[in-house]
Protein 1
Amino acid sequence: MQTYVIWILLCPLIGVLINGFFGRRLGRGAHVVACGAVGVSWALSILVFLRVLNGDALGVDVPAKLYSWISTDTLNVVVGFRVDELSAVMLLVVTTVSFFVHVYSIGYMRGDPGYARYFTFLNLFVFSMLVLVLADNFVQMFVGWEAVGLCSYLLIGFWYEKKSASDAGKKAFIVNRIGDFGFLIGLLMIFANVGSLDFYFVFRDAHNLPQATVTAIALLLFVGAVGKSAQFPLYVWLPDAMEGPTPVSSLIHAATMVTAGVYMVARCHVLYDLAPAAAAVVAGVGAFTAFFAASIALVTNDIKRVLAYSTVSQLGYMFIGVGVGAYAAGIFHLMTHAFFKGLLFLTAGSVMHAMSGELDMRRMGGLKRRMPVTAWTFVIGAVAIAGVPPLAGFWSKDAILDAAFHGHPILWAVGLVTAFMTAFYVFRLIFMTFFGASRVDREVEHHLHESPPSMTVPLIVLAALSVVAGLVGTSEQGGIFAFLNRAFGDVEGHEGAGGKLGLMAVSVLVGLGGIFVAYRLYLARPYTRERAARPGGALHRLLSSKYYVDEIYHALIVQPVSRFAGFLWDVIDSLIVDGLVNLTGLFVKVVSWVVSRVQTGRTPFYATSMVVGTVVLLYYIIR
Amino acid sequence: MVPISHYTILSAVLFAIGVLGVLTRRNVIVIFMSVELMLNAVNLSFVAFAKHYGEATGQVFVFFVMTVAAAEVAVGLAIIIALFRNRETINVEEINLLKW
């Protein structure tokens, strides 16, 4: 199995090397290398998953070791892989979505001057994400954690000639840096208290640590997750990250990288089990973010940004799940979300492709007639996210709500309200984009077209996955829950069989209610250009300006930092540092001017000096 | 037998005359001659001490000094001629181009 795992990792890396060095010469052939590499990884991941399904594992009962990376008296870091039920699921999700996004990119990125560069970065991302997922120690995880952040930065700023894109890349990188700082401190605290960074030793010895220490560690690790998984208050980079190519948004900013935080919390479930306070913070932040981001998505008109806020909101859901101890439910939602949100983003990309880059839903409408495959796959994804049975989103969302209901009714209520808003905004998007009368500009409408097969086939596959992926989790005792709980050990199974049907009915009603309200507002009453132009009320203004969070950050953090940097530049650098350097130069100049006066050019003067000097020297020597 | 002190005093006097010549005269040729005088004053003390101590080293040095002086005369006179051709003067007070 270790051989499989090594090749799963190496294939994308080989793709990076080939495309990185020879991509320009390959030209259009770059995608063959990239897709082939990820395809092999995908096939091997399925094999590994099947092995794990049969009870095989790697690095769980004994520390896995491939080779020793850092070896000192106190710190020993090995490179090794941990393949258990949790990483097997992640492996499958990551490689599956990656493969289809790669295929989709062939059509989407056609003709882009950075074609090979794009696939290089995308392969590098897959490699980094797999390093993160397969790591068996915190250092290796951190390497993957940072590397996916780097790839995210590179791909958000892929069209770097565009100022907004390169700004968005920087924003993502800097905001992530804040979270990663907490993560790193958490790692140092683990090392200081446990003396090792291997998952095996840390999780074995964690229960010996004092409560306060475990809580601090768990919270610091969660700070990293807040940054990486775009939770409040560090979510601000994700909506801006939509500047990148849409397949990137789908793969990195919906399906895989942003779920790394959820995966990390689930991976460290031992720590969060020992620190209920930290787990409560996780669930609380998740619930708040879920509600907060969903409310912004209600009024957003940019098709990709609606999905971005939706992603933030759904990630909040996952954190509710892992925060209340329902790790399997959280990871299950991660999986279904990867499929339906990846699908939604790819369909949005397909719309953009057809609309010559137009993102504003107010200039769309009625696209169903011209691009039926895109429209109907989008509807499938939307029904899945809205929580209508038997599609994927229903089962996973319901599992989280069910877990929250037992012991955390407030979180359950927030989740339910969020579910309503989710159904509403996603169907608002559908009705504004694909249904109703067309508000498309004349010249854009002229070449409106369905996307090529390389784009529609991944859509259809992901739509199929969005339909069936939930069926593995229909029962709390079996399917994916039984499978994942092998990794999470004895998680307290809540006896929810009695009220479960009732809860299901409530969440289905809420989802359908959201859809119905969206229908009433955006389809039954025709959404026209005039209505789009009408200004909204105070609440609408608050929501559509995103609670002014960006403005607040700008005033509270960006402005002072940039002013402080200006001060450092003007005073410390220009005045003091440059001043010292210039002063040295000036000193030398003045002294040399004074000394150079000696060179009169008059020979008698030189001769006299020489004689006088010789006499003086002789006097001192002979004396 | 003339005592060594006579030779050294004569040498010192000749050297002092040479130094004064270099310091006071304006004519480059005369300065040049004064330098030669200083060299030969030193030569005198070399041979005097060589005789006094009965050693050949001082005599050998005199040959070296004479050789160097001959070379110096050749080069120095060439410089003076070049200077005169360019500046029409051999007055050191007027030759002061090489300064800051």
Protein 2
Amino acid sequence: MIANLGLAALWFAAALAFLQLVAGGLAVRNPGHPLQGIVRPVAVVQGLLVTVSFLILVWLFCVTDLSVALVAKNSHSAKPWLYKFAGTWGNHEGSMLLWVMVMGLAGAFLALIERRLPERTMLATLFAQAFVSLGFYSFLLFASNPFARNNPVPAEGMGLNPLLQDPGLAFHPPTLYFGYVGLSIAFSFAVGALLTREVGPTFAKAMRPWVLGAWIFLTIGITAGSYWAYYELGWGGWWFWDPVENASLMPWLAATALLHSVSVLASRNALRTWTIMLGVVAFSMSMVGTFLVRSGILTSVHAFAVDPTRGAFILALLAIYIGGALNLFALRASTISEGEQFTVTSREGALVMNNVLLSATLGVILIGTLYPLLAESLGAKVSVGPPYFNPMSAVFIIPMLVVMAIGPLLRWRRDSFARVGKMLVLPAIVTAGALALAIGAGMKVLPLLGLALGLGLLIASVLPLRGRKLRTVKLPLWGMVIAHLGVAVALIGMASESAFTREKLVAVRLGDTVQVGPWSVKLDHVSPVAGPNWTAIEANMSASYEGGKRVELHPQARSFWSPPQETNESALVTRWNGQLYVVLGEEAEDGRWQLRLWWKPFVTLIWYGGLMIALGGLLALLGRVASDIRRIVAKDKIAYRRKRQGR
Amino acid sequence: MSGTVKAKHQRLVLVLIALAALIGAGLLAAWALRSQASFFYLPAEMQANPPEEDRAVRLGGMVEPGSLKIDPDGVTIRFVVGDNKARIPVLFRGIVPDLFKEGSGVVAEGKRGADGTFVADNLLAKHDEKYVPREMKDMTADQMRQTLEETK
């Protein structure tokens, strides 16, 4: 009964999206059309209805209503409550409903608050937004109905993939979806502006918070996903160039480029067509990511759906959105007038470089990710891994880091390297010194460059604050400095992890001690333990850093019973200067236990750096939103005063 | 007047740099894929047409029953991957995935050593939910055996 209500709300929301599309389209074509007034309210109600539908699904999961096929397939009454709740989006249909809900809410929010743009551009944006939503509604209703019923009702559910039974799951997918959806709004803005040819600073200022927001969520999503893979898979790595990881990295790269070009458009009124193009590319990458992850074309923990019709459906949506947008772009781009001029050695020039290098990085990752799929359709089975991705992305990222050190110091419009050269002496010396030391120590090329550039960038990132009173520095500038610092910090972490990690693979008896780097680790005893829906073999170990105080460690080999599956739970000891990472293997016949241990100096900097990047974005967003609010309030005051004087 | 010409000129420079970078990226990617993509081999293919020694490839097949041996260090394992036509000895140092066992399918990632032994850096076992190799998804042990027999 409740499930039918959820389905009805979803259908109703879809119908409203259709109404929004028609009314918006008519109003853009004939300004002053009688239906113009209903576009915004319809967008708001649509957002509320799809939210109701999603909340109903959450409720069905929380009470484990097994008459709903989706619940029976993915949940189990013995599951801890957090995973019942988070399990709502731990499956294909639920996660798509979450996506559509976020999209509906974003549209509603946009319709409620955005008043800066000319009304016609705004209507065109909501029209484009309805077009995108409608595709997703039909995908849900026709190819992945989350409310489909089971008849007869099974006695028990089938449970959730144990790898997904982790607190991280509650937050990881929604974070990425917020990012993807933010980019869909940026896309709608781009299409709206193309339709009405209103590409300028106002448009950029309206679009920027959405790009910033999307970028913040993507950054957090990628950082969290990387940490999850690091501790949950038990392989000791933090990035595997898995297609699914690339699916989240590619939209991030596009969003990073878009973020920088939209800032140029907002403050300098340059890079008009390029910003529109990036808006289209960024959303395309979200769709490509969704296609890769959700179509079942790849097999991994993320691929819930192994249903070819779904893959075809997403591919069709991708073709319609992107094909349509590119067509519109081809038709309209030439009619968008050229923006302001600037020289190559200027802030704009550096940002163009940043955009080009990010796009090139995106290009090589996209090619590497799609190549195996292409080769397979031609009959060859290949996979593309780190030997391709590491050097190929480094070729473009290394020059980008150099641009990143110089760019923020350049002035807008026109500047000279001679002026900024003096400021960059210190970072250059640090980089050269680190390079010399690292070459002396015989480090590999990539970690060596990473470490040297990371240290140089650490200093260069704070140079834009030079000679300013810190109290008067605006939030967006702080945001930029902290985000760039975050890149340097993450880079140092990556280089250090790859250069200085110590690894040990051994089979030991109870009571034996293993040395790995500065740690001595003792296997005390091994015992069985039980959790709510699993049993495990747990090793009790103690570790001491350079003979200091002993710390307890408990790596486990877990066996889940619904569905039956085994996982390795790694154990970590975190210090300020790195992490000890221990995985328990199998018991050999002679009673020895396999252990794999790593000492990873400064590995945590990778994720701290990621969080700093996100924090930088957040500060910039807060700064922009605060000044927007101040401006709106000021405007209202003036309008109010005028009204009173007029009387 | 000369100012606008200069500006146009600058714009052209930027567009050219952008184009060069993007085309360069494409060409570089194509070249790197030729040399770095890791191909999938069945044991018979690997025997008939062995890959170069330090090229990363993947070897897939059945772990031959009775072939699994652990060295005295307790962590180096040796086994034979076969497909009824050829048998390739494999060496792996590490913790095997949970569903790795004799008589079931495996994909080994690694390189062919000088003595013909395949040195694996990583093993992917079927039904290992961490990662099911694309070549082996949807296959039961029997289907796997069948497919291997059908191939050449």
